[in-house]
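Q: Structure for this?
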Amino acid sequence: MEFKDYYKILGVEPNADEKAIKTAYRKLARLYHPDVSKLPDAEEKFKALAEAYEVLHNTEKRAEYDELRLARSRGFDPRNNQPGAGFNSSAGFNSNAGFNGADADQDFSDFFNSIFGSENARSHQSRNQQARHENPAAHRGRDLEMEWPVMLEDTLADTTKLVEFVIPHYDSQGQLHETKKSLNVKIPAGVNDGERIRLKGQGAPAQGVGTHGDLYLHIRLIPHPLFDLEGHNLILTLPLAPWEAALGAKITLPTLSGKISLTIAPNSQSGQRLRVRGKGLVTKNGIGDLFAVLKIVMPTTATEDAKKLWSQLAATASFDPRAEWSN
Amino acid sequence: MTHTSEFISPDFHVSFEELCVSANISTDKIIDLIDYNVITPVRGKQPQEWQFNITAMRIVNKAARLHRDLEIDWADIGLILNLLDDIEQLRNENSQLKQQLKRFLMSNS
């Protein structure tokens, strides 16, 4: 089992005083806390920080840790006969679901548990534990959260989808098990990107006696190849040939619910937005609109005949696209 | 694999008690958040009747974590949450605008 250098993690000297440790923790915590940091390894780093602080700012724990550190520097590791509880994080899961206000104790590493014992950690007075003792109802399993990609088309009407997931939990010996589970979930129409829905009691079981935690599905609308989102409206970029924009045209447009016909007026411009009511995303109070945004596109090659026609047009037209430049 | 043919309807609301238990903070602190207008019950006149949506649940849990881990004063939590929210919204807007812009720009220039 890997030895964790808590002093190094906090960036302090081994003889740092209480104040220095607190300052170091605060500085790093503000940098890596998952709620305020967008850094990719924020969660992991913060967990390490929190654990280091848990040990170093507690006089007794720090003393025990320092002893171990000293012994180790002399080539002796008294923990060698300790069985460790393996903790593997499950793929696809947010182990810190972001819903429990108090982190479960299995957030401490194997290393921590090997010194302070997982039993000891659970009953030990830590900042979290104080709150838990005040609120005995808080004996419940941890909440789990899962990213759930959903196609735009699926948000148009109520649907039922199969959700498959894995619940990590500890048995009475502290061994980690993973139970596979699948559920049919009713998803109502009009769910938004980023919305979370709760499946009560489908989370992890409690350690010992208590209720199950909940499962949260974090809805993520899958980007569509054609449509972009703008709130509850959809934006469709509509490519037009120059002559279509010049002469007008009748275009068949795709929508999330089938094709429709759209008339483009003569002398249309790039960037113009044409609204098609009621063809956007379904919401809890109505339906958004679809906006077709015109984009005039040039062919990449031209035949000799085409070039002749373009030249004629250029010769006869008196249009100056850069009129506003000359002053 | 445990499969259930049960059809589960998700919850969109939670009770006041569930909120307290989930965030693991005192009821007083949650009432503070309501007083500061950080969260509002979607229905109910008395605390026992109060129902909150899932967003409120997330807000309360986030507030509890920031207070505990970063030692932010509870009275300042409302401002911090608003700022974090604004940042998130701006990021999303930015993302959407970039996506729209990409449709008009040549991809390999």
